[in-house]
Structures are given as C-alpha cells and as structure tokens.
Amino acid sequence: MKRVLNCFLLLFVVAAACAATTKSVSVYTQRPADPEAVYFTPADYQIKADGSMDVSDELQRALNDVKEKYNFGIVFLPEGNYRISKTIYIPNAVRLIGYGKNRPVISLARNSPGYQQEVATDKGGANYMFWFTGGLVRPGSEPRDAGAGTFYSAISNVDLKIEAGNPHAVALRTHFAQHSFVSHVDIHIGEGKAGLFDVGNEMEDVRFFGGDYGIYTTKTSPSWQMMIINTYFEGQRKAAIRTQEGGLTIVRLHARNVPVVIELNPNRSDKIYMEDCVWEGVKTAGIIVSNEGLSPNQLSMQRVVCNQVPVFVRFRESGKQIDGDGRLYRVNDFSYGLHLKDMSATQEYKTEIAMERLSKMPPPPVNDIPATPAISRWVNIRDLGAKGDGESDDTEVFRRAIEEYDVIYVPQGWYIVSQSLKLKKNTALIGLNPVSTQLKLKESTPAFSGFGSPVPLLETLQGGSNFVSGIGLNTGAYNYRAVGCKWMAGADSYMNDVKFLGVHGTMEKGPLNRPQQRRGNAPQISSPEEPVCFQGKDKSWDNQHWSLWITNGGGGVFKDIWTASSYATNGVYVNNTATAGRIYAMSVEHHVRNEVRFKNVSNWRVYALQLEEETRESPDCQQIELQDCSNMLFANLYLFRVIRVDTPFPYAIRTWNCRDIEFYNVHNFTQMRFTTDLVCYDMNTRQDVRPWEFTRLTITGKEPRLVPLQAEPGKLEMLATGFEYAEGMTRDSKGNVYFSEERMRRVYKWDVETEQLSLVADFPWQPLSLACDTQDNLLVFFKYYPQPGNIVNGRPETITELPDAAGTTYSYWGNNGFAVWVYSIRPDNPEETIQKLQRVPMGSVPSVAKSLYPAHRWRDLHDFDEISVRKPEYCFIAPDGVTIIPEQYDFARSSSVLEAVPGKPFYASDEYNHLLARMDVKPDGSLQNLTHFVRQGEFGSAVDKRGNVYVAEGHIYVFDAQGKQINLIRVPERPTSIVVAGKDGNTLFIAARSSLYRYTIQP
To answer: What CA–CA distances, in Å, run from 325 to 259, 260, 322, 355?
Structure first.
C-alpha cells in the first residue's frame, strides 16, 4: 500500500511540475481593432519589440497618451519582448492589454537602478515595475497611489519578468478598486522581492514563480475583500502570500514548494476564505495565524488537498498547530473564529475541522470560468456600421448583428440604443473596458419611459450560454421602466467586468486638460442672507427598476460586477431560480432603499460580495433581503457604511422563510459608531444576530419564534415589527392580509395559512393604499410623477389636477403635480404581471361588484359631506371587470381604502372633524345618503361579520351596528389602517406605524 501511495504522489508531483512549466496561453491571439485605442507599435512610438532597447519612456508616453486624450481607455501591446529599467505608472481607468499568438513579455533589465536596496520611504519597502496610480504622474512629481477611487485599471495578457540583480523589485503595485484587475499574467520574480504588493479588487489566472513572496499585502484601499481565482504559486522563499487584513477570498489556488502558503503578519488579523485549493511541498505550515482568539480573525476553508504538508495551521503566539493526516489528505471543512450554529445560538469562539486521509489524488476542481471566445470568431460591431459616438442610434446595427453572429466585439465607444437588445442563446458580447465601452440610453427614451412593466436594456433568453464581458450598461437618469440587464441565461453563462453606470463610477470622456465647469463661489459661512445648505439628494434617484435582474431560471457566473446606480431600485435582484449561480467579486453600492435582494433562490454561492452605504443616498438602505431562499453560501461578506454616515440603521440582512443559508466570514463595519446594529434579523421569528464579526453562521430554517403566536380570543399580539410606517392594509378572499410602506415603496403579505410574512414587491413607485378585486388581483394605489423629458402624444407629459383637490389645504403645500393611479399585480409573480388599470367613464361598467374609496379624508375646508358622495367623471376598472375605483384626489393622503358593496352600508372617516360617516352604496358603485354615525374617526375603520364597526383613532374603538360603543382595544402604537380578515374572517389586523398586530375577535 505504501508503494502504491508513493507512486500516486510521484505522479502528482510530475503532473504539477508539468503544469508549472506550461507556457502561458495568449487570450487575445490577434489585434483587436479599436479606433479609440493606442497601439504600442514602432509606427507610433520609437521602440523595438525584440528586447534590444529600453522602452520605459515610450511605454509611459503611450499610457499617458490614453489618459490625456480620452481620460480612460486601452493601450494594446503587441506580441514581443520589451525591456524596461524603471517604474511605469499606469493612470486610473487605463488598461494595458497584450495580444498576439504568444503573450508579450515585459522584463525589468538586469541591475536596473533603484532596485538593489530596500526603499525605506516606500510603504512596501520596494521599487516596482508597474505602479497603478490615482492619476497621471507628471515628470518631477510624486506618484499618487491608486486608492478607493481608482476604477477600471488593469493589466491583462502580459507576462512579466524580473531579471537578476534586482532583489528589491516587485512586479506590480495594485492598490486599486472596482473594475480593476490583473488577469492572464505570469510573473517570473526570480531573485526579486515579490510579484505583487497591495492587492485590489480581483485577479484571475495569475502565476507567480520565485521571489520572497508571490503577494504581500495590507488591506485593500477601500478596506474591502480581494477576489483571487485560478492562481499558481511556486518556489517562493518565504511564503506564497503574506497578508494583513487583505480579506482574501481564494478559489482554486495551487501552491507548490513554498515554506508557507499564507502568513499573517504578527499582531494582525485577516478574513481568509479558501476553496478547492491544492498545497504541495509546504515545509513549515500551510497557514501561520496571528491574533489568536480575536473575532476579526476569520479563517474558513473548503476542500483543500494537501500533499506533503505536515502542518496545516500554526498559531504564532501560542505555538499550537494542527497537523495534517499523513502525506496526502484533504481538509473538507475548516473554520476558525466566532461561530453561531444558528440564529438562536450563543456565539462561541472555536476551531472546527473535518479532515480525511487520501490514497490518491482526487480529480482537479472544475474551472467554472468560461474561456473567452477565440478572437478569430469576433465580429467587430464598427465594421457593421455602428458609430459609438454617443449620439447616433445604433440599435438596428446591434439587432442585425445579434441575429447573424455569435460573437460580437464592441470596441470602445458610447453606443446609443433605443430598444431592448435581446441576445440569442449563444450570443457573446465582448468589450474590453466598461467605462469606455457603453451601451447607453438617452434620457427619456420612449420605449423605457413612463409607467409600465420593466424593460431591459440588455436581455438574454432562458437557458442560454451567453458570454458578456467588458461592457458598461447605462440606463441614464430618467427612464422609469428601465432595467440594465434581465438575465435568464443558464448555468454555463458568464457575465464579467460589467458596470451598471449611474452616479458613482461615472467618468467624463475627453481630454484630461479640458476646461473645468465653474460651479460658482458659494459662501463658506452661513448667514440669513446667504445660507450654506447641505447638498441634497438628486430628484432622479430611485426611479428605475433593478440594474441587474436575474430571473426565470437564470444562473451562471457573475464576476467583477459593479452595480452602483442610485437611479435604480436596487443593484441586484435575483428571483425565481434554482439554477446554479456563482458571484465572484461584486460591488453593490449607493442605492436609496435596497442593495441586493434574493427571492425564491436556491443553489447559489456568493464570494466577496461588498456593500457600501453613502450618507446622501443610503442612510435608509436595506443592504440584503433574503426571502424563501435555500442552499446558499456567502463567503467573505463585507457590509460597510461610510465614515460620513451619521444615522443608525437596524439590520444589514433581513431574512424571510429561509433555510440552509451558510455565511463564512462576515465583516459588518464603519469607521463611525453607527455600524448597522444587527448583522441579521428574521422578520418572522424575530431572531437576530448581534456579533458584528464572525466566522460562521448557519440559518437553518428551524429557529423558533422568539414569542410564539397564540391567537387567543380577546387578546392583541404582535406578528411582526421593524417597518418605517406600515399602512395601506387590505385582504384577499382567502383572508390573507397585505400592507405597504409608502416612502420605502414596499408591499408586504401576511399569509394566514403559514403565519408567515413576506415582501411582495418593491417597485420604484410609492404605494399609498392596497385593495383586492374579486379575483384576488392586488391593486396598488400609487403616486405617479410625470417623467421629466417624457413626450406623450407629441407634448411633455403632464398631470391634470382633479377638481376635488381644492377642498383640502393638503393639496396646497407641494402635494400636487402628481397623479394617483392604480396598478394590478398577481402577488405570486408581481414582476411579470404589473399593469396600469384602465381609466373609463364613471357609470360605464354595467355590473359593479364593489367600488373603492378613501378610508378617511382630510377636508379642512369643510366639504367632507359633499365631496364624499360626489360622483367623479372617471374611474379605474380592475382586471376582474367588476371592481371600480372612482377617481378622487383624497387617495393621495388616505392611509387605506375601503370596499363599498352595493346594498351594504359604507363607512368612512372625516379625519378633520374626528367622526365616522355612514353611506349607502348605489348599484353603479357611487355613494349617497351620508349620515354621521359616531363621533370618532381618524385612520380608517372595519366591519366584522356581526356588523360591529371598528374605528381607528389612537386606539381601536368598537361600536355595534347602532353606534353604541362596546369595546376599546388598546394598541401600543397608533393604528394607521385596520381590516377584518383571517381564515375564518374573525381576526382584526392592525397596521400600527412600525408593527403588524392582530386581535382575535371573541366568538
């Protein structure tokens, strides 16, 4: 058996050695044609590509040319050998991309000046071949390191080599942020110090040979995670990686012949997640850990194969270690740090490990990153007639290209489209820089404007294997119906390096030295004559649908995505899919109400998801919603509120009816004291997670309610809490209850069968009240403001004020200029069924089952009695054809609506005079014969099966059918709307500001 094992180990070593010496593979084997790119060729620069001359100055000039002419872009480097002797500075938003049958090679010449001694004044103590910076480095000026605002920078498909005599040389310094990366690069460090100092954002397919370290790093410039995919380390003299607070999220790392794979700096912590890795020939320890016992230390590993790794983990301070199980073994699961076995458990700091001895090497892990289509298959959209000039409409060129070709290359340019682009099942859409290559909507593009169902700029078919990379999707500010991308492609599809533009990360195009727009000389000291005001919110924020909508079985790999458009409802919405999905390095930021929402999703793995909340846009933003989800993993999840935030927020993650959700390494933080109070809160069980830093949490779905539900007759009980202002309550025919939050634009459902709360919808329109028609279509009353710039019938869209607005001063003070319209949805599929109700003449519906009226009116000009029975000219008609909504201004202020059924009494509150009126309902749904019923009335009323009337005014007053008070139900919060519902129609539900209550009516 020992001989057999040794044979397997020998075969593995030989295979690994072969892999290590495999020649690098060029991704771009031909010259990509791009009229806005710079090509580093002898035709434009004084160079030779045979290694015979120093090209340092000319390469720097080429990179600066792009920055100075366009502000962002690409330098293409042809196949060849290039010699440099000093640091090359790559400005922000500029990419260096190699092409040719073989990758170009850039070498630091032997004994280059400045690379022989440690640089004491440098953060990394080194000198660099390439240094990514926050801007141009002018001659004689000091470089400004790349930072949290350095976007779109990259080096790709280029190999680097440090020649002998440069012991303090480092190939790359990469402290950049979103959409910046290193990919398809071999770094031969040799006698040099390291391949890379200070990680940033993401790297893929990078191999490190030699050096003291492959990577040594501090925390990323924005203090976020780092995504590392498909990397190889060999022959480092000290460690493959040395880190402190790097937030390393590592998938498929292979380390060979190193003393240590990852070493944490003394007295420093880190959050490291590793999956599907191979370590071999590791002499000292796989990982050396510092800061033992501290919650910021979070180490998690899944499926790490170890060959000749005698010590898996060593703890620096205590000297303790975890030994491996023989010469060949696999660590299936390892976690070190603060653990919570479920949401109801007490936290515990511990180590968990599941290790097994192996008799042979397992198959290599599957690489889930699809290969870029061969460049020989690319069809250039410019060759087909697209302009990309930011003005011409290129829609039809793209549509014809999609119909005729599988692989479409989109060179740099801003391409205007005016209709959805629907990809075929195998369409690949390839750009090479998402800020310089954009698909863009003009403001108020007709197909995306006004009220209606979501309209995607880019759409894939269900089950497709699409490949979309290097492109920006820009839906503008005012396009109410816009979705950046509706993704329904399958498990083999791929979206990479895609930016959803809007506010943050937007850059102006053009010469770097163009005149700057003057913004005036505002006073710096406030006075009554010249006040200095806080900068307010943009009126156009939160007016569109979701930026990235993954739905209807959508899945695949989503890598290096930045979705930060404050104009969108949220950055990512995933719903109705069990198709495997993987997210690698996604940044979702700066939305007003919600960043990420998962609904009815299973089989997804999310790595290095980063969320950030800004002061102006996001003080009220819910970072993550998880509803009806299962079998999901979140690894290295960072939940961040910026240092300028000055308001508290209750919870980062809200969950609803979820099970088997695993969290590995969670970091909830801000530099201010207003860190989000709770990492996680379940809206049904009311269980919460208090630690801000932890290594592992499982949401099992079996956690009990903190307070069991009783439904005891004559008793009030809280069902759920945590709402800003719950109102708008209604019921359906099954007794289920719906309610809304106007400012937060959310619609909720209480299911009476499961006794569970769910979030139904969060469209970008403010819901005012809810109702149901006879077929249980949910009717949503909402505010509609005309879309600026939207042209309807040849004229700017406007709203005509209703005549009954004149009787209330509420309409005088800014509460005008909008319409109250009604849309319907099916609650089980709101996104695909939303439609505006048709407006018809009042009296044109032959058979009215019920009409809907405001539950209360504020008529401070004393016309309540007259206006309540006034018959308007028009009404809306529900999908059932028999439910009508007479058009009335008072819907704008009412916190709920009530049903008026012909032949039955109807009650409504005179809110100003605090009384309840009774009216008769005519066959056409209009009202008549108003009388004053009781001297109590505020935010609505309800009637039970006996005819008893419940009136909301601070508490709940109960009257019999003759108007005699028979009960008082005290409520901890002021009721906003009430309804009698439930399976047997014998439960009073109460929306009361922050909470939902029920009162079981006594039999």
So the answer is: 18, 18, 10, 7
Question: Could you give the CA distance from residue 910 to residue 939 in angstroms, rounded to a whole number?
Answer: 9
User: CA of 517: how far to CAs of 427, 508, 513, 520, 557, in Å?
Assistant: 41, 12, 12, 9, 41
Walking along the chain (1003 residues) 10 residues at a time, the average pLDDT comes out as 38 44 91 98 96 97 96 97 98 98 98 97 97 93 94 98 98 97 98 98 98 97 95 98 97 98 96 98 98 94 98 96 96 97 96 97 95 97 98 98 98 98 98 98 96 97 98 96 98 98 89 60 63 75 96 98 96 98 97 97 98 90 97 96 87 97 95 90 97 97 95 96 96 98 97 97 96 98 94 91 92 87 97 97 95 97 96 97 97 97 97 97 97 96 97 97 97 97 96 97 89
Q: What are phi and psi of 694, to 5 degrees?
A: -155, 160
**Exposure b/e, 433-445, CB count within 10 A at least 16 = b:** bbbbbbbbbbbbb
**Number of neighbouring beta carbons within 10 Å of residue 789:** 16
CA distances from 4 to 9, 359, 611, 622 (A): 9, 8, 50, 56
Instruction: Tell me the β-bridge partners of 581.
Output: 556, 604
Q: Which of 164, 239, 251, 140 is nearest to 206 (CA)?
A: 251
Q: Which two tokens stand for residue 605?
A: 């793995």
Nearest by Cα to 872 from 847, 890, 897, 860: 890
Give the pLDDT score at 713: 95
- Spatial distance between the Cα atoms of 371 and 348, rounded to a whole number of angstroms: 43
The DSSP letter of residue 703 is P
Residues contacting 900, CB < 8 A, separation 6+: 850, 851, 852, 853, 906, 919, 921, 925, 927
Sequence-ordered list of residues with C-beta below 8 angstroms from that of 881, at least 6 positions apart, any chain: 845
Strands 328-340, 651-656: pairing kind: unpaired
- Measure CA of the first residue to CA of the last residue in the chain; give whole Å: 78
What gap in Å lies between CA 330 and CA 306, rounded to an integer? 6
Who contacts 3 (Cβ-Cβ below 8 Å, separation ≥6)?
Answer: none
Element (H, E) at 7: helix 2-21
287: left (phi over 0), alpha (psi -120 to 50) or beta: beta
Buried b (16+ CB within 10 A) or exposed e, 890-910: bbbbbbbbbbbebeebbbbbb
Sign of CA dihedral 59, 61, 65, 68: positive
Residue entry with tokens 């011409």: 392
From CA 226, how far away is CA 243, in angstroms rounded? 11
**786 in Cβ contact with 798 (< 8 Å):** yes
Detail the DSSP E strand segments found in 826-892. Answer: 835-836, 838-841, 850-854, 856-857, 874-877, 883-886
For residue 311, which of 337, 333, 288 has the smallest C-alpha distance? Answer: 288
Quick one: pLDDT at residue 671?
A: 82
- How far is the C-alpha of 871 from the C-alpha of 921, rounded, in Å? 12
pTM summary value:
0.95
Helix (H, G, I), strand (E, B) or coil at 810: helix
712 Cβ neighbours under 8 A, 6+ residues apart: 1000
